[in-house]
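# nightly structure sweep
# worker-07 picked up a monomer target from the shared queue
# config: single-sequence mode, recycle default, output format = structure tokens
# input follows
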Amino acid sequence: MKMTSMIISNRNGLPLLQRCIQSIQKYTDTPYEIIVVDSGSTDGSVDYCRQKQVRFISTPSSRGFTRSHNLGLHLGSGDALLLLNNDVVASPRWLSNLLNCLYSSEEIGIVGPVTRPTSSKQMADMPISTFKHSAEMINLPDSRKWQSVERLAGFCFLIKRELVEHIGFLDEQFPPGYFEDDYCYRARLSGYRLLVAGDTFVFDLGNASHNKEDNQQVQNLANPNEHKFVQKWGVDPRSFVRIEGGDTA
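# output follows
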């Protein structure tokens, strides 16, 4: 079976990291490895990884999501590479469903699940209070729920290794995040398709994965990063943040 390298960026997010890893260990039924890239945490995150025998690398200061994920991508040995926020809670059959979607066609390069809460096209139509029950109901394998999109959010970003080998790593001129638009655009330019796996739900606590310092940095860099994208590609990234007419895979 194919193995997935899960790369989790973390900085002083111990409670979130614990919940994320525990849910992965409970609900993942395909081969995987976890790689935590910790950026100077002082809250015991590194000790937790060491105690739980979770593979990790610790840097002395904050690297931002993009650089941390790149470091993890270099270390990952899996056939598929999953960039995962530390505030994501896994659910039954989540990874097996995502992998089924990713490997359903040679054209597909990146897939992502649906979630709550989010303002993106990956919004799941469900009450937040019924997470466990809804996950059981949504995560029934059903390729009719797969949809082609032009952009995927980076909270749970499953990539074929061959895509990384073809187009390279994340562009580090977009710190601390907001790399999704650039990477998705590069994948599409290279002929790969992006899919939302509507039969896969995970719970994303949203901005909880950023501490206050990182949240402020994101706000300060959102507009400059958009400007960098336009300078690099000559395209407004907001022009392709839409679902392509409801096409299914």
